[in-house]
Design brief:
single chain, 102 residues, mainly alpha, 5 helices
Length: 102
């Protein structure tokens, strides 16, 4: 695995840790009304939008399964893990493009 791919995967992992700290400092997620909910939302970008879209789709039952686990997992770590995968794919694409260009 390339160094830049590892670095890209580290970004959403750190964002997940920051969101976790803010979540516990705030005392949970305030459904958009908490003092730090916007920070938690920003740390989940861009994958948090996938969850918003899924919530309005026929697949919303999938989200309910995550809600049953805990709000913490559904709001913070599902987007963080999706972002790690997304950033891994981004790093792999960069590697492929660099290898083709050389």
């Amino acid at each position: 695995m390339q160094t830049h791919t590892k670095a890209l995967m580290l970004i959403p992992a750190v964002a997940g840790v920051v969101a976790t700290i803010v979540y516990f400092v705030q005392g949970g997620f305030g459904a958009g009304h908490g003092r730090f909910d916007f920070v938690i939302f920003l740390c989940g970008l861009p994958s948090i939008f996938v969850l918003v879209i899924l919530d309005k789709s026929p697949l919303s039952g999938l989200l309910r399964a995550f809600d049953a686990l805990t709000e913490f997992v559904g709001v913070i770590w599902v987007p963080a893990l999706l972002n790690v995968g997304l950033f891994y794919l981004l790093g792999a694409a960069i590697t492929l493009l660099k290898d083709r260009h050389v």
